[in-house]
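so the lab meeting is tmrw and i was supposed to have these ready like two days ago... anyway. pasting both below. for each one the top line is the aa sequence and the line under it is the structure tokens. i havent really looked at them closely yet so no promises
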Amino acid sequence: MNARRTSILLGAISALSLTACGATSADPFIGTYTYTEDHTFTLTAPVMAPAMKGTASGTLTVEAGSGAGYVLTLDTQADAGGGSCTLDAERGSGLTLTFAAGQTCTVSGMGATGTATLKSGSGALDGTTLTLDLSYDITASSPMGSLEATNVDHDTATRE
């Protein structure tokens, strides 16, 4: 074998060895994102009220969970109806996420505190932008009494 063939062969073997040793690309979901949220909050009890649209912003962190899963932590401003909410998601087909219903988060805002229970959730990654669509039922108490509501979020997050 001549010297050139030998160096090409050694380079190919080296590349194969690195691949076999577990050199893999980074997970496209994992990271920290800055997000904005458009939401619709509807009071359903004790009396029905017109839907209230609003916005919020904060930080979204995506970490590896168990199996094909992820742990997503949304940190919003406390006066924007939140604080921190952690949800588990599973990777769907392609660059999508699915969320199991029934997960809960503690919520607060405008003098009320309570629990938001996830009804449905999905997400999709396009480049560095992760979009989430989340729907919650909320039960809470305030100085004026108990309340029930629904909240539908559309979050747009950009990787930092």
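ok protien two:
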Amino acid sequence: MILKRKIAKARLRLGKKHSTSQHHLQDKVEMTGCQKYQDSLRLKNVYKNFTRAICNFILSEISTPYLQPIAEELNIGINEFREFIGRKREEIRGVIELRGFLISQSQDSLKLSCFKKAFQKMAEIFIKFFAANWICSSKLEYKLDYLKFRHHLLKKVKNPSLLHSKLV
């Protein structure tokens, strides 16, 4: 019930009219150029922000209990993996870099492909269990949009071939 009220308030703030009864439905109003631009800004940096948050999660001590079994399974060193993530975190600019983190290429070494598999598993853990807390405690302006985007991103992290430069 509380969540429904929060969603209704958020829709009112965004200027969307939402009604469940047929009597109160109104015709759609055409969006102005400014509104279209603002809608495109909502998810402009979503991949960059999520990827950086995943990297920060991996580098933090909170991830250690989740990272240890993955590191043992893939035969990688935790400190070595964290150093790799720390170097790559600075290069993140969007969906292309996220895709590079997730998809193993034929020219990748065995160690690099293991790092990518570990990143994928840690990304799934972050999105499932820690992303909602990160979103709610961050300075993001469009928190509701980011909360809705989690499921979409989780599907793409599980199947990285779906990642492309379009947002949706």
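from a quick look at the 2nd one: The helical segments are 2-14, 33-42, 46-59, 64-74, 78-89, 95-102, 110-136, 143-158. Confidence is low (pLDDT under 50) at residues 18-29. will dig more after coffe
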